[in-house]
Amino acid sequence: MLILGIESATVQVGCAIGGHEGVLASTHSSRGKRHAESLTPAIEFLCRQARVELSEIGAVAVDLGPGLFTGLRVGIATAKAVAQALRVPMIGISSLDLLAFPARFSPRLIAGVIDARRGEVFTALYRQVPGGLQRTTELRVCSPDDLVSELVATGEDVLLVGDGAIRYAAVFDEQPNLEVVDQDLAHPSARSLVQLAHARALREEWVQPWDLAPIYLRKPDAEINWSTREGG
Q1: 115, 197, 212, 220 — which has fewest CB within 10 A?
Q2: Domains in the chain, please, with CATH?
Q3: CB contact at 8 A, 75 and 7
């Protein structure tokens, strides 16, 4: 079975195609907030590069968030439209799970940290287990200072990945047991999405398009701003 993966939770948008042979092709780009303009051409380009017809896709995987509201909405809407047009099931995976996955070979505690704007981050902690990673905390939103306090309290060496870790690197670098990974692991990867989705596909952990919902953790900024104006 071939899986199309669509990832758009951060400023980067990406897609990949793969299956039991691994990832056949992937493409990622960062063009600010132009997710809607980039995604459909990227899928068409990806199919050409992989020499795959869209009709050959057997499932669509998508990043559910948390992340930037507009990017998530574009990615999930596109993924649902493709799945419904092809009449295939879907698989949804958290952006923080995708972010941490490439660091699965590290024996250290891993913190996925996505920039949530407004002085906050989306985060979750992970630990290496045979065959991959296990999430050890809930997905949540907090301030960088609160996250530092939590990580220091563990007494462990921690590897921090994600654009949120990079943005607030000055806060994390003050602690000797915390290490921020550079741009190589700044964003969730569509390649990781396809890899993790394939494992779920083997277990037939499907979701129908109408049952798939994004993970926001926080109201959209526009809604927060409107509430603030009303309160004022």
Answers
A1: 220
A2: 2-94+188-231 (3.30.420.40), 96-185 (3.30.420.40)
A3: yes
